[in-house]
Design brief:
The chain is an alpha+beta fold. The protein contains 15 helices and 22 strands.
Length: 461
């Protein structure tokens, strides 16, 4: 009998799962991807501005994995035949906006946590003598703490407020005092189980993840992330069911899975042999029922992206962009000088493109402006932060990601482990709600889920 596998969620985790499933089951298996929106890709969306491609979501991914080899995202790109389309940012530094000036981000940090405090001159004053060897490791095996709690204790408040917070804010739109060390910095959590000082743990983590000399930190796909999405859909051979949310998931007496999807007045029904659930926490918890209690309370931050096409020749600092500590009080939390950072986008005549990220966890009410007002705030604050008023953009757009970024509280990894341990065979979960943000993490999460359900199917032939 021909097997059918459902992938609920068409973001990059779900699509990576579908590709892996097709590799494991090249024939004789139907793969169906259910995506509640009108298009696959989730937060991977490429737009256009002033004739240039500009990402409306994630703009890049880590080029290397924790072992120094290519990341899971790079491996997927190569698997899809897009290896020749990998591009890398220009070698421009990034900065921190501190009190009306742009200060270079110190080198040698791990998501803002330094291994050498002497490198922080002019950026933050570390607490003197706090990071001492107390004769025991920083963390007990498997323990978790908030990033801010550990760094404040060892390095003091300024290092967190002026360096770690903006770095984490750029990725998670969250605050160090509320984010799990084990999820956001797993390599540091690992070395903290053996090292007695934070500086030692950072250096040990950096040594374990030492990348190949000369290998760029980040990569993207020429043609945009939507090109990656399209290639994944094609390679998976999956049937897409778009615009119809899955509302219920239950087990049949025969051991299959029943899906009810579509509108409530006119529901549709499918039956499949295995399910991969790759959706955010709240819909996942609803579909999982009692088993989803471990993930139901995961909070999310809302953010907005504003892209500005400035007149050709507009002068900007010679940077890839900058991050803004929360203490600066701006709605802008980060900016990318897109056409400076990505040389392949700046070819030929065209505008100078800047992309601005606005909003942090707990600031949702500050984003409740119409697009024109939000763009005005972005342009004004950006000019104030770089010290020069910006001209009117020729074109612009706003992309809102309501509830877009998970806020992993300490203990998240343990909660997810308990959830997975309680799932029935033939059902797997994947994606940012469970394993962390970033394209490589989501790709690896989706592939792991595909492996799990495939083992189940192989054992039930």
């Amino acid at each position: 009998m021909r097997k059918r596998i459902a992938v609920i969620g068409g973001g990059i985790a779900g699509l990576a799962a579908a590709v892996r499933l097709r590799d494991l089951h090249p024939s004789g298996t139907d793969i169906v991807v259910y995506e509640r929106s009108s298009a696959p890709g989730g937060k991977l969306q490429t737009g256009e501005l002033g004739g240039r491609r500009v990402e409306r979501g994630a703009e890049s991914f880590l080029n290397s994995g924790s072992d120094g080899a290519g990341s899971a995202a790079v491996a997927l790109v190569q698997r899809l035949g897009l290896g020749d389309a990998l591009v890398h940012p220009a070698g421009r530094p990034a900065a921190l906006a501190l009190g009306g000036r742009l200060a270079p981000i110190p080198g040698g940090t791990l998501v803002g946590v330094p291994g050498d405090l002497s490198a922080l001159d002019g950026v933050a004053r570390p607490a003197g003598g706090a990071d001492v060897d107390r004769g025991v490791p920083l963390l007990a095996p498997g323990a978790d703490v908030a990033v801010g709690a550990l760094v404040r204790e060892r390095y003091g408040d300024e290092v967190v407020d002026r360096l770690v917070d903006p770095m984490l804010g750029g990725v998670y739109a969250g605050r160090a005092d509320r984010l799990s060390l084990r999820v956001t910095m797993p390599q540091l959590a690992f070395t903290a189980e053996t090292e007695h000082t934070l500086a030692g743990a950072v250096r040990a983590a950096q040594a374990r993840g030492r990348r190949t000399p000369g290998r760029p930190v980040f990569a993207a796909v020429d043609g945009g992330m939507s090109r990656l999405v399209g290639a994944a859909v094609s390679a998976s051979g999956a049937r897409l069911v778009l615009g119809l949310p899955v509302r219920e998931l239950s087990r049949t007496p025969e051991g299959r899975w029943k899906l009810i999807f579509g509108s409530a007045p006119a529901p549709r029904v499918d039956e499949v042999d295995a399910v991969i659930l790759a959706v955010p926490a709240k819909p996942a918890a609803r579909l999982l029922g009692a088993a989803g209690a471990e993930i139901a309370a995961l909070e999310y931050a809302s953010v907005a992206l504003a892209a500005l096409a400035l007149p050709p020749g507009t002068m900007l600092p010679d940077l890839s962009g900058f991050l803004v500590p929360p203490g600066e009080g701006t709605l802008v939390k980060a900016a990318t000088f897109f056409t400076t950072k990505w040389p392949h986008l700046a070819q030929g005549p065209g505008p100078v493109v800047v992309r601005v990220s606005l909003g942090r966890a707990g600031e949702e009410e500050r984003l409740q402006l119409d697009d024109a007002s939000l763009l005005a705030v972005a342009r004004r604050e950006l000019g104030e932060l770089i010290g020069a008023a910006l001209p009117e953009p020729a074109e612009s757009w706003v992309q809102r990601w309501g509830g877009g970024l998970p806020q992993y509280a300490p203990g998240h990894a343990d909660r997810v482990a308990r959830l997975r341990a309680g799932l029935p065979e033939g059902l797997a979960v994947a994606g940012a709600a469970f394993d962390g943000v970033g394209i490589p993490v989501c790709v690896a999460s989706g592939e792991r889920a595909a492996d799990d359900v495939s083992k189940f199917l192989e054992g039930n032939r």
